[in-house]
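ARCHIVE CARD
Drawer: 12
Card no.: 0347
Subject: one protein chain, sequence and derived structure
Cross-reference: see card 0346
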Amino acid sequence: MDQNYTHQPVLLEEAAALLVTDRSGTYVDATLGLAGHTIKLLSVLDEKAKVLGVDWDPEMAALAAGKLEPYGARAKVVQGNFANIDEILRRENLPAVTGILFDLGISSLHFDKPSRGFSLKHEGPLDMRINPANPLTAFSIINHWPYEQIEHLIRIVGERNSNRIARAVVDKRAAGPLETTAELRDLIERVIPFRGEKIHPATKTFLALRVAVNYEFDNLTRGIQKAMPFLASGGRMGIITFHSLEDRIVKETFKIMADIGEWKMVTRKPVVPSETEVLLNKRARSAKLRVIEKA
């Protein structure tokens, strides 16, 4: 990956404004990416503050570490999965932090690099792993899972044609494995013709595969639960989601937390990008930010 590659973080100003309650505090960017949110946080925090950045992708963590070198001891990068945020914070001797941010969007770099297999626009292997050490790939799902599991996986992300897509996949692989993103995209186009709609007919299938490969829903639930005890009183947790299933998990979990009485909602309704931000970065259009505070 190119050290000079840039990624436009979503809701940058809003996330920093809502997360920072103590300019001298300790913050965690649990989805570091290329460090855009971390750099923004450092710009509004004072010299005593520290930010710990966590990323599951070792290559991304290395790139971010390079970008954060000018900030010295104020920023530290750890390669790890935020589903294990409790272990990470214990290891870093951080029993209480001021704020934790989760930005659940996949980096533009992942989409733009064909060899990672995330994008239906570029031909690449059916991979979709955020961490290459993960044994599960989109190839394994498409070529080895039974029809019923594939159909269910695609259906839960809202794909109305899940049965037709799953059947086409199973029929096609009987003659030989589906190996590339282009093969899968073209197969879905034959089943559900693309008539110039805003959303490509393969979009939800690709989303479903990515979510399954990276255990995204399980990791999100675990990450929230394991981060909760490590927030100091008055500390905040902010989560940026990019599709309705993620947002539902966050919304319902935050509601349960607030109902218990130890937490209070900072954002009654999700914060969404401005029209200007969406015009400048179309990947921001579905983003929602929710923030909760520990009493």
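Annotation on reverse: The beta strands are 26-29, 50-55, 75-79, 97-103, 231-241, 263-265, 288-294. The longest helix spans residues 244-260.
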